[in-house]
Amino acid sequence: MIKIKYNTRVFIDKRTSRIKIRIRWNNQETTLSMSCRADAAKWDETKQRPSSGTMHVFRDQNMSARALTAEIDQALDEINEAFTRCELDSVMPTKEALKVMIRGEQPQKEPVKLKKTFDELFEEFMNVVGDEHNWTEKVHYKYVQAWNQLHSCFPRITIETLTKDKMRELRNWYIENHYRNVTIKKQFSFLRTFLKWLQSEGYEIRPGVVDYKPNLTIVPKTVTFLKYDELMKFYDHKFAGGHSNWETARDLFCFMAFTSLRYSDLAGLKRANVHDDHLEIVTQKTHDKLSIPLISYAKDIIHKYEGVDYKKGVMFPVPSNQKLNSNLKEAAKEAGLEREVSLLYYKGSKRHEEVRKFYEIIGCHDGRRTFVCCSLSFGIPPTVVMSVTGHSTYKAMQPYIEVCDETQQKELAKWEQKGNSLKDDVAKKLANADEEMLKKVIALLDSGQ
Q1: 56 and 157 in a common domain
Q2: Of 115, 166, 265, 315, whose Cβ has the fewest other Cβ atoms within 10 Å?
Q3: What residues does 356 pair with on adjacent strands?
Q4: Looking at the structure, do residues 257 and 237 belong to the same domain, yes or no?
Q5: More confidently predicted of 110 and 266
Q6: Is residue 212 part of a domain?
Q7: Are residues 377 and 293 in the same domain?
Q8: Do residue 379 and residue 258 come from a single domain?
Q9: Phi and psi dihedrals of 74, rounded to 5?
Q10: Domain range holding 278?
Q11: What number of helices (H) and strands (E) belong to the chain?
Q12: Is the pLDDT at 109 greater than 50, yes or no?
């Protein structure tokens, strides 16, 4: 093992405004150019960082000082890791070797001739992996969407030109186009799955590309659901004439809330799935076989739609997911579901908070969340809830869980219940105390004990 002394200097290229890092070690020197830029007038030379609280706006970038500092720190960490690896291996790195370790930059050489283009490889991935995992149209769409976004950022991108720097530029492209951080993270995960498949097929991916993860602030998604009194208010609401689509949307939502069904399972539900007091289904998404008890409210909805043969023999007249969500919003507005919900999210380093009426954001999946949250608020054990929803682990169910106000109040009320119980015990003892006992109590109170 050897010890390598090195130093770095972070500065701005006055010509391009790009942030660069100069590295010196063992009488060698090289400069790394970052994909982000900074305004020289807002740069702190002493700290070698953008001045605190500043914004750096360019044609292809809009980043805060905090976000730029995070980028710089990440790059410096990568430089430190590269030198640490060299020390452990007792190797003094050359300029070219250091760039390969830090940024995946390879020496100039003839490009590898591939039998298939990048687009053809992606199409093969979609066909092969899609068939292996029985992808739905929705999953196919998500991968195609991520692929199209990559090409919107880099119209001529190839497997050879996709570097770690390009991945950083793609991250900045998403931010510039106002994507939420949670969406950016998901899109990178789709791209990463494709790249890992390429590696498994023997294709060479540039260093640092497959492992790249965007450094972004992610906050837990607000879990939206109806509280029990809101659900029953919705269930009992009488719609005016001419709004049969709204009433149907309400019935379908409530049925999902009473049974935990997803939209896909509701749409394919048939009379044959009903057995006495329960449903027996194999879920579309996870292929789990579930037995779901039918409470009286769910049975009433089933009876309401008896005697009518719908398309493909299904039990309910279920429209498209988009149409059902649209009708749901109208129905919820008519029923007065106006509780305000705070939605918090980040776009890049900028925090956003929106306050929306529940009827503005209600969707099909809120029915399933309502089942989970209401069940837990009633004190039903999570294991029982999971047996109905089909979640295999408590962690898998975690995104749906939100502690209801009613649950908090019930649990915290135990403090008052305990205190009131103690007060009642003291009052009873005082009421039954003789004169001698009362004198002792008064003496203790006077002594302050």
Answers
A1: no
A2: 115
A3: 341
A4: yes
A5: 266
A6: no
A7: yes
A8: yes
A9: -65, -40
A10: 228-402
A11: 17, 12
A12: no
Q: What tokens does 297 get? A: 């409210």
Tell me whether residue 189 is in a domain: yes
Q: What is the pLDDT of residue 249?
A: 96
- 237 & 378 share domain: yes
CB neighbour burial string for 179-214, b if at least 16 within 10 angstroms, e if fewer: bbbbebbebbebbbebbebbeeeeeebbbbbbebeb
Are 140 and 184 members of one domain? yes
DSSP 215-274: -----PPP-----HHHHHHHHHPPPPTT-HHHHHHHHHHHHHHHH---HHHHHT-BGGGE
Asked whether residue 303 falls in the same domain as residue 277, the answer is yes
Q: What are phi and psi of 45, to 5 degrees?
A: -65, -35
Cβ(263)–Cβ(364) below 8 Å: yes
Please choose, from the candidates 181, 173, 263, the residue with its C-alpha nearest in 3D space to the C-alpha of residue 220: 181
Per-residue pLDDT, 107:
46
39, part of any domain: yes
The arithmetic mean of pLDDT across residues 242-258, rounded, is: 93
Please check whether residue 339 is in contact with residue 349, taking contact to mean a CB–CB distance below 8 angstroms.
Answer: no
- Amino acid residing at 219: V
Does residue 30 surpass a pLDDT of 70? yes
* 316 neighbors 324 (Cβ within 8 angstroms): no
Same domain, residue pair 356 and 236:
yes
Element (H, E) at 56: strand 55-58
* 8 A C-beta contact, residue 234 and residue 226: yes
Q: What is the pTM of this model?
A: 0.62
Task: Write the pLDDT tens digit of every residue in 139-166.
Answer: 999 999 999 999 999 999 999 999 999 9
Two tokens at 213? 């993860």
